[in-house]
Amino acid sequence: MNFEIEKVYLLFLIPIILMVMYLISKKIKLKDKGISFININRFIIITILILAMCNISISVKTKDSSTIFLLDLSHSMSNYKGEIKEFVKSAIEASPSNNKIGIVTFGENQEIEQFLTYSKSFNDIQTSPIGNTTNIEEAIKFSLSMFKDSDYKRVVLITDGKENQGDILETSAYFKDNQIDFQVYKVDSEQVEDVYIEDIDILDKVAIGEEFSVTVNIKSNIKTKSRISVYSGREKKSEKEIDIEKGDNTFLFKDIQHKGGFKPYKVVIEPENDGISYNNEYTTYTNIVSKPEILVIQGKIGEGKGLEENLKTIGSSYTMINPSTAPRSINELIEYKGIFLCNTHVDDLPKGFLDNVESYVKDYGGAIITTGGDNSYALGGYKNSVFEEILPVSSDKKGKNEIPEISLTLVLDRSSSMLSSDQGSFSKISLAKEAAIRSLDNLRETDNIGVVTFNTEYSWAVPMQKLSNKDTVSDKINSIIAEGGTSIYSALNEAYNKQKESSAKIKHIILLTDGQDGMGENEYKALINDIKKDKMTLSTVSIGTDSNNQLLEWLSNNAGGRYYHSDIYTDVPRIFANEILISTGEYLINEEFTPKVSAHHDILNNVIDEGKFPHLFGYVGTSIKNTAIEIMTSHMDEPVLAAWQYGIGRIVAFTSDVNGQWSKDLLAFEKTPQLFSNIISWTMIDYDNSGELSITQEGSIAKVQYETNNHEDNKTVKGAYTFEGNTTSEFELKQVSPGKYEGNVPMSELGFYSFNITEELQGKIIASQLGGFAYQYSPEYKFQEQSNSLLALVEDTEGKIINSVEDIYEIKSN
């Protein structure tokens, strides 16, 4: 047992007071025993008060004690992890046998490194809490829950004290109420030379075409030079060299935006001298206010000319582009209220567009309208793309119009000339193999495939078989090697003989070559007649400048197929893929018909008078999906106009064209502007957007708060967010009070996030609210002033600052 007296000098008052009382009693000669007893009691009370004022503490050994080491592993402590480990290791080795040890690591969150135990085994720190912020308050509260009531309780906090989340002083009552011994081992972290972007000032909203300022605030503890770059989305707006002074620095940039929507701004600095690079990038955003605009993507020039004329007539604001310049991110997509795709092949669209178009509709309420032609739906590669998922029609023909069994033979030139790559970086044999493999995507497992290759002789790379294992067939095609001369006839004749054995209703041969074998039309006449007689078709593809184009065209024309010549070798895979579909005669329907109304729908309001609707002269064959609305059908009972709701957005598929080839009568029809106006009104719906959306950063969490005037209890509020226009994720918001909802979204990547919040009641979307959020680097990477809160807590809880492990294990009793 040890005694500790903080104010020893007060003890001298006891004999002084005793002497004074003695002298007084002697002077007045008090003999009454009752009065003497009262004086003795007075002396005892005064003595007790003096002892209390001395702040005497008694340290005793108790039966059990528990010590929790609270380790700060935030980013500002990253260089001191080794020092922390060695201190804890030494403290555990010095721990009394009756003391249990627990270890909790923390930063933004807390993790238990070791539960309370008498064991002294400890080698290294294994846990890794999120280090973005330092929240000592929550770490202390978390650790206190580990104690048992019967134990003597001790908390040893190891930190630099740079708290930037929470308030450590809020824990004072916990220590006092639970009689917890609080100790702090203070780590003095060093400040490195550093330059960082403190923040960016920008207006929340800006009118389209209006000039505005982007103000960049930079802090530095050194004088240096730097390059500074300003980006808006993918576009670099400015770059220049700057001088940075020690202290606060401000740099001003001007900009104008010509398209609406949320516009992220990212500033990057590259200082010559800098200790930390993580804080050299900062993102913010502004909302460019504009009228809703429509985007028209036309596969080739002129594909959207009929649509453009009608958009002008109805006064819609639109932008017309080619596929290669299509938006590549969610943030770019949501600049537009809706998007028309006019006879656009999927291969011509950017990957970013294809990756995000589903979320654009489903999560952000965008509209998609597709139109037909020889590069759309099945012929546009939609079958194996996102469009097969989101459109109300399927590129595969099903039901009564399902395509009969197909038997396909590919006859591929593998002569040595196919090794060349006259244009581009790909050899002709590589593209031939890619084309053959791509063609498999348009075949079913029930269809037949065979691949004959030839040089001076022919051989079967893939014997005729059912396409039951696409990977195996692909591997065999990939193994084809080019060598030798060219002999086409024998390979083509072999393909015919094998096809003759097939019972498939559709038998088709595709011949690809870059050369010639010296034979003319007369030598092929008998073979071509046999092909026609046995109800087969032959299409031919020539690549390069050395092939006998005249012969190949004659072969295909006389065998019911098509001839293709390509100097752009990358077109060959698309030719093969489309050729299979065209060969069936079931996808490009070049026939005149009058569309039939299958369902009364808002899209047809004030369009059809007395059942009159103009003729169409063709369309692309598709099949309607189960839950879609089939508004108009063809004479073959296939979709001509279909629609459906997809997530919170809407999609319409029109399977005829808008360039006038199939739709010349429709484009001349006086009610066609009304038709397109109805399509736009139905797909590009205006949801209630009066809700208030607030998104704030709390550590590595985006705290989403949404308030609405609609207080219906049985509605759901959901959210979607997309990082930098790429991957979209969903989350739910919980009601915290009438009309108020909250949700927490974990963040990982620094940068801009698009958000959309929707209200759903009885299965219907009733409101939608767009928002933006910029996730910044951790405040751990900013200059942090030393806080007095930690020392104030130590004083308030009668704790102590320790300098070594020897200071830890004294048990104090007040």
Provide a concise account of the structure shown.
The chain is an alpha/beta fold.
Cα shape: elongated
Tally of alpha and pi helices: 18
The first-level CATH class name of the largest domain: Alpha Beta
Q: Tell me the major beta sheet.
A: 8 strands, mixed
The CATH architecture of the largest domain is 3-Layer(aba) Sandwich
Number of strands: 43
What does the model show?
It is a single chain. Helices cover 23% and strands 33% of the residues. It has an 8-stranded mixed beta sheet. The protein has a 6-stranded mixed beta sheet with strand order 5-4-3-6-7-42, with helices on both faces. The model has no long low-confidence stretch (mean pLDDT 90). It folds into 5 domains: 2-59, no CATH class; 65-191 and 789-813, von Willebrand factor, type A domain (Rossmann fold), CATH 3.40.50; 294-351 and 368-386 and 589-683, Class I glutamine amidotransferase (GATase) domain (Rossmann fold, 3-Layer(aba) Sandwich), CATH 3.40.50; 404-585, von Willebrand factor, type A domain (Rossmann fold); 692-780, Immunoglobulins (Immunoglobulin-like, Sandwich). It contains 18 helices and 43 strands.
Outline the fold blueprint:
Layout: E1 2-5, H1 13-27, H2 33-53, E2 56-59, E3 65-72, H3 81-93, E4 99-106, E5 110-117, H4 136-144, E6 152-159, H5 172-177, E7 180-186, E8 195-201, E9 205-207, E10 212-220, E11 224-232, E12 235-244, E13 247-255, E14 261-271, E15 281-289, E16 294-298, H6 305-314, E17 318-321, H7 330-333, E18 338-342, H8 351-362, E19 367-371, H9 386-390, E20 393-394, E21 406-413, H10 428-439, E22 448-454, E23 458-466, H11 470-478, H12 488-500, E24 506-513, H13 521-533, E25 536-543, H14 549-558, E26 563-566, H15 572-583, E27 588-589, E28 596-597, E29 619-620, E30 623-624, E31 629-633, E32 639-646, E33 649-654, H16 664-668, H17 672-683, E34 692-698, E35 701-707, E36 716-723, E37 728-732, E38 734-737, E39 740-746, E40 751-761, E41 764-775, H18 789-796, E42 800-802, E43 812-813
Parallel strand pairs: 3-4, 3-6, 6-7, 7-42, 9-15, 16-17, 16-18, 18-19, 19-33, 21-22, 21-24, 24-25, 25-26
Antiparallel strand pairs: 1-2, 2-43, 4-5, 8-10, 10-13, 11-12, 11-14, 14-15, 20-30, 22-23, 27-29, 28-31, 31-32, 32-33, 34-35, 35-39, 36-37, 36-40, 38-39, 40-41
Helix pairs in contact: 1-2, 6-17, 10-11, 10-15, 13-14
